[in-house]
Amino acid sequence: MYYLGIDVGGMSIKGALVDKEGVIHYRANIKTEVEKTSEEILQDIKDLCLSLVSEGGIKINALRGIGIGIPGSIDAEEGVIVYSNNINFENVKIVEYLKKTFDCPIKIGNDANVAALGEMKYGSGKGSKNLILVTLGTGVGTGIIVESKILLGKYGAGGEGGHMTLVYNGLPCTCGKKGCWERYASATALIRITEEYSNKYPDSEVAKIIKKEGKISGKTAFIAARNGDKTGAKIVSKYVKYVAEGLISLVNIFRPDCILIGGGVSNEGSYLMKKIERRVSRYSYGGSRNYKVPVKKAELQNDAGILGAAALCIDN
Amino acid sequence: MYYLGIDVGGMSIKGALVDKEGVIHYRANIKTEVEKTSEEILQDIKDLCLSLVSEGGIKINALRGIGIGIPGSIDAEEGVIVYSNNINFENVKIVEYLKKTFDCPIKIGNDANVAALGEMKYGSGKGSKNLILVTLGTGVGTGIIVESKILLGKYGAGGEGGHMTLVYNGLPCTCGKKGCWERYASATALIRITEEYSNKYPDSEVAKIIKKEGKISGKTAFIAARNGDKTGAKIVSKYVKYVAEGLISLVNIFRPDCILIGGGVSNEGSYLMKKIERRVSRYSYGGSRNYKVPVKKAELQNDAGILGAAALCIDN
Questions:
Q1: What structural domains and CATH numbers belong to chain A?
Q2: Three-state DSSP state, A278
Q3: CA angle, corner A112, sides to A110 and A114, nearest 5?
């Protein structure tokens, strides 16, 4: 029994042929041509599915399901992409379209949610029934699993933890509100903080690295901090506080089995995870009296999307 | 078929004999004698249950369940009160104790969660599967229902939405963290804001009411605002922003069917609800493109606890 997992992103559409145990048997990617119409992109997705089956060497009737993760507002029940801000998708009936070609269950979900499902079934969240996957990237994405199920909210519009208010009347966010968590805890925010500090402390190692490399990245402050630079350490500490503060809010609400951190910043590994975990444990409600929530790196990373998408169709 | 609903509070323990449709057939309250040991309080609860059965005029074998709502950390699965800060309860096996006397299902839950269940089954939340009950009182309590079930979190320690961070590095909270929502949106906070403004504007109607009555309450600013006082209106507006801001975070995460507001402040009725609803609708993620979450007064108020407690045992 095989399943297809499709992960639609702004840059590429990744696909994989997966078995029940989450083992990838064949994979293929195509470029997301965002200038195309929604009909053309749907056709690209269909062609990718067909090629995964044929190139993967299975018969089409061995296919037990197709799961698709898509960025934006997804009505999973109706099988409709309500809105996706990076791709030309508005009220697109993707499930109905694919049903014309494929005679198997087809399910869709928001990409951040689907990745959380992937981590729960096959990644760092294995064995957990309640978990939160936080992806620190351009923004802050959250995928929340409650009792083994994705937290969807009405019309699948929930799960936007990155847009909790962290700083009342703080920095304006693209969502129209001020002070959203993602304005402080995203990789974008880390780069902004790094820039501020490097301007303020031009003799610091952070400033020197930036000058030498000609650019700032989410890694700059961490490299400096690991080398013993005080400014680098200050930036990391400030950033950790922002990340942890939002996680504390989520822990107080959900008290999950574990928190998983994904996105480029999570490559800082246990150096970062331990700092976050200590702060979350200290300041979450009930302090040491309550269950200490482990903070772990999301291990599937780029494969979380395709595996989670496939998992939408796998019952086990 | 009858059920007992027991609502344990810091001041009184309320009890009711309830049928499957949530109709209260008999009720009785006793004082919570907080100076007593946990064994003595357990005995008071047992005696209250027995008297509800006998005075309610039913046979004990017509009793199909006893549900109990208790403030604090509750391990519903094990039937244990882990910790309750107002009453001498620490690791109290209340279910095991009552099982010696009553041969029927006995279930316990945190009081705020149980009240949310009551509102969902018999109050303003009827027909909703996903709702959030926010009680604006001394603190801010949240009871969250996801897919018709109370959101518990590991060992029942979740659901503490009042301790989300709203103001990063803000006012210190009793929980040990800074800037918790409840420091800005509770009735206590409203009184504090009213006091600040009345000191700043001694000629305002707000200041006059306080002088005349010799005290400040959660109603003061609303009375003045309804009478056209600018200072009163400013206080209400500031308070509404704080209440709404935390609700927006919760809406972005959960996108519930509705939000219910309980506690003394909710008696300001639709005057308050409409102001909150407008702000939540405007600033929650996706703005007008998303489902607009209605904000309603929790109608059961003091009965939400006993009805929700009974509902822990009622399957329908």
A1: 2-121+303-311 (3.30.420.40), 127-186+230-298 (3.30.420.40)
A2: helix
A3: 65
Structural element, H or E, at residue B52: helix B38-55
Q: Do B164 and A255 touch (CB under 8 A)?
A: no
For A85, other C-beta atoms within 10 Å of its C-beta total 11
Cβ within 8 Å, pair B177-A248: yes
pTM: 0.92
Minimal C-alpha gap between A7 and chain B (Å): 22
Residue B92 has phi, psi (to 5 degrees) of: -95, 120
pLDDT in tens, chain B (316 residues): 999 999 999 889 999 999 999 999 999 999 999 899 999 999 999 999 999 999 999 998 899 999 999 988 889 999 999 888 678 898 999 999 999 999 999 999 999 999 999 999 999 999 999 999 999 998 999 999 999 999 998 877 788 999 999 999 999 998 899 999 999 999 999 999 999 999 999 999 999 999 999 999 999 999 999 999 999 999 999 999 999 999 999 999 999 999 999 999 999 999 999 999 999 999 999 887 778 999 999 999 889 999 999 999 998 5
d(CA A14, CA A16): 7
Q: Which chain B residues contact residue A184 at CB under 8 A?
A: 168
Of B160, B179, B257, the CB nearest to A154: B257
Q: How far is B174 from chain A (nearest CA, A)?
A: 10
- Chain B residues with beta carbon closer than 8 angstroms to that of A147: 149
The beta strands (E) that lie in A33-96 are given as: 63-70, 73-75, 80-84, 89-92
Angle between helices A205-213 and A230-254 (to 10 degrees): 100
A248: which chain B residues are within 8 Å (Cβ-Cβ)?
A: 165, 177
Residues of A in contact with B151 (CB under 8 A): 146, 253-254
Pairing status of strand B131-136 against strand B295-297: unpaired
C-alpha to C-alpha distance for B24 and B118, rounded to whole angstroms: 13
In this complex, the residue of A130, A253, A285 whose CB is nearest that of residue B154 is A130
Q: How many CB pairs under 8 A join A and B?
A: 141
Q: Which residue of A has its CA nearest to B128?
A: A154
Count of CB atoms within 10 A of residue B193's CB? 18
